[in-house]
Structures are given as structure tokens and as C-alpha cells.
């Protein structure tokens, strides 16, 4: 058996046996080195793991994770929900619209879908249940809407993509994710509103409208967070990594001094939680470095890419197959693992067909977003169903509806690259040909 097959096979076997992704990647890389190179090359393990994490932009990941936890604990979601309710007003499907809008805004603070799903579900699920929405529907809608955090800047997944794919400007990726993220959110609103009106969920006469001005004043500190982050990036005041530091600082100020829901003890607990989560992410990145180095040195990724190219010489056919592959991976793995495993394989395809790397990165992110609420793993859906105290399988029918809706927005971005590339191009970032 060839070293390529042994490396990929040992990795897949480890996953099937329940080995954590990080260790499965490391094991696959070691098998590839031993069988295809030389046992002496195991001396490179330390260098490869260190080089994988010793990258300045990666500092932003733990900081944005901490930002999401701080804003969740600070009670930002509650103020945003009240303000959105004041804008939308009492109507059939009003709370569904509020849930999607709040998830989009929260996505502009943390870049983490599960964190946004938890924060919004805690606030929205009781209100939606009282208004007559089925809990499985509400949990699925919030899980799907919070998946847009992977697109709305700042996005942890896009930070990682900019590191894995050489020469891609992270600012261009952030700008490119904005319109597709909003489009994905709007695509979820269509079936949500139609279903709410069809079933008569949320009686307008039984719902009170919060005062608009008071709600706006309470939500203003939260609304300023995306403005500060994106405005600072656009003006050149700080880099994406520095933006993460600013976001944490602003979150602490808002949570402790304005909303006053954040104590020193809470902050210590959140830093500890962020450190644990970040440690898991960094461990995956570190051990994936062994897998990536072995696959590159052996030529495994090039061989896999050539195998995919042999299926068809039509770029659109291959792009469709890649999207199906990423969707399947998104049903089983987290975004970090998908990028680290698949990007080395997909890079030769991207270069062969001349796909714009910024546009391609957004397509991958949209596909992974769908995977975040697609069973069996469905990390966002696991969070919301746990809060709703319902079983995951009860949401399957609703999940199919929202998967179809977001897949439509993905297809639009595939066919019209300008949806993603127009904004970074107008802002003067390097996006390449499109």
C-alpha cells in the first residue's frame, strides 16, 4: 500500500474510532512520515508543530473567542433583542425576524457561531415559546442564523483561511464576507416568515412593543462594537489582530461599566474558558502542521487534487463536487479542522481553474456555515437544542427547510462572485481577478 493511502487511511480510521481530530491528524502525519520518508524525519515533529502556531494573526483567535464570551455574559443579546423588537413591532413572524437580526449583529462581535447561538437562544427561546412558536423550529432558526457568524466579520474561520492560503488579505476576506453573510441571513427570513404566517404563530395583539428610544439607548453600546471593529480596520487604525484586542477591551468596558453584568470573578472565569477553548483550537492547528508537512512532502495532496481533476475538466462541475465535499465535511467536523484538512487538497484545484481565492474562501465559509446546523454533528444546533431541552432529531424537518434556504444564497454567490468581491474591491483591497 502506498504511503499516501496509509497516511489518509490511518487518519480516517482514527476518526472512525473516535480519536479527537487533533490527534488523528498528528497520527496520520506520523504514519506518512514513517512509511513514505524516513523514521529519522520524525525529528521534524517539534519544528512543524511550533511553526504551525507561531503565526502573528493566530493571536486574534483566542481574543475573539474571549470577546464572544464577554459579550454573551454582559447581557448584550438581551438589549439587542429588545431594540429589534421595538423596530420590527408586533406581527406574525416578528420574533423570527428579531432572532435573525440579533444573530447577524452578534456575529459582528465574536465570529463564533456556537457562542452567538447560546447567547441568543437564552434570550429568545422563552419569548418565542410564549408566542406559540414550536421549540424545534425556534432552536433550528437560531442555530441556522448564528451560523452566519462564520461570514460576518470578524470571523475566526476566515482568519484561519488567510493563514492557510498564502497571499490572501484578511481585510479583503472580512469585507467579502459581509454581503454574503447578510444574504444568508435574509434567505432564512423567507421561510421563517412564510411558516409563521401560515401557522399563525405570534398574535400581534398579544405582544407589546418596547419603547423605541429607550431600547435604542440601551442597545447603543452593543451596536457600536461592530462599528468600532470594522471602522478601525477600514481606516487603518489597527490591524485585524489589534482589532481583537480592541474588541476585548471594549467588551470589558461595556460589560462592567455600562451594563454592569460583568464582575472581576466573571472575567476570570471567562478568560479561563477562553483559554481552554483556544487551547483545543491551537492543538488542532499544531498537530495539523505534521499532517500538512507530511502530505506536502509526500505529494499526497497533489495526487488527491489530480485525482479530482481526472473526474472532469469542467471548472463548474469540479466546484460543485468541492461544495458537496465541504458540506459533507461540515456535517461531521468543525470549521478549523475542515480548513486544515481540505485546503491543502483544494489549493491545486483553485490554482488550476483560476478561482479567485477570496471568493473561494467565502464559498467554503458559507458551506461550512450550513454544516454547523446540519445533523448529525450540527454544533450550533446542539447548543440551541440543549437550551431548549429538546432532542436533536426533532429539529430535522425544520433544518432541511433552512438548509435549502441557505444553499440558495450559496448558489447565488457562486454564480455572481460580485456579491462577495464588490465591497473589498471598492474599499481598495487586493481581491485579484473576478
UniProtKB/TrEMBL annotation:
<dbReference type="InterPro" id="IPR010656">
    <property type="entry name" value="DctM"/>
</dbReference>
<feature type="transmembrane region" description="Helical">
    <location>
        <begin position="316"/>
        <end position="346"/>
    </location>
</feature>
<feature type="transmembrane region" description="Helical">
    <location>
        <begin position="56"/>
        <end position="81"/>
    </location>
</feature>
<feature type="transmembrane region" description="Helical">
    <location>
        <begin position="358"/>
        <end position="383"/>
    </location>
</feature>
<feature type="domain" description="TRAP C4-dicarboxylate transport system permease DctM subunit">
    <location>
        <begin position="9"/>
        <end position="419"/>
    </location>
</feature>
<dbReference type="GO" id="GO:0022857">
    <property type="term" value="F:transmembrane transporter activity"/>
</dbReference>
<dbReference type="InterPro" id="IPR004681">
    <property type="entry name" value="TRAP_DctM"/>
</dbReference>
<feature type="transmembrane region" description="Helical">
    <location>
        <begin position="137"/>
        <end position="161"/>
    </location>
</feature>
<feature type="transmembrane region" description="Helical">
    <location>
        <begin position="274"/>
        <end position="295"/>
    </location>
</feature>
<keyword id="KW-1003">Cell membrane</keyword>
<comment type="subunit">
    <text>The complex comprises the extracytoplasmic solute receptor protein and the two transmembrane proteins.</text>
</comment>
<keyword id="KW-1133">Transmembrane helix</keyword>
<keyword id="KW-0472">Membrane</keyword>
<keyword id="KW-0813">Transport</keyword>
<dbReference type="GO" id="GO:0005886">
    <property type="term" value="C:plasma membrane"/>
</dbReference>
<dbReference type="Pfam" id="PF06808">
    <property type="entry name" value="DctM"/>
</dbReference>
<keyword id="KW-0812">Transmembrane</keyword>
<comment type="similarity">
    <text>Belongs to the TRAP transporter large permease family.</text>
</comment>
<feature type="transmembrane region" description="Helical">
    <location>
        <begin position="245"/>
        <end position="262"/>
    </location>
</feature>
<comment type="function">
    <text>Part of the tripartite ATP-independent periplasmic (TRAP) transport system.</text>
</comment>
<feature type="transmembrane region" description="Helical">
    <location>
        <begin position="216"/>
        <end position="233"/>
    </location>
</feature>
<protein>
    <recommendedName>
        <fullName>TRAP transporter large permease protein</fullName>
    </recommendedName>
</protein>
<feature type="transmembrane region" description="Helical">
    <location>
        <begin position="93"/>
        <end position="125"/>
    </location>
</feature>
<feature type="transmembrane region" description="Helical">
    <location>
        <begin position="173"/>
        <end position="196"/>
    </location>
</feature>
<feature type="transmembrane region" description="Helical">
    <location>
        <begin position="395"/>
        <end position="423"/>
    </location>
</feature>
<keyword id="KW-0997">Cell inner membrane</keyword>
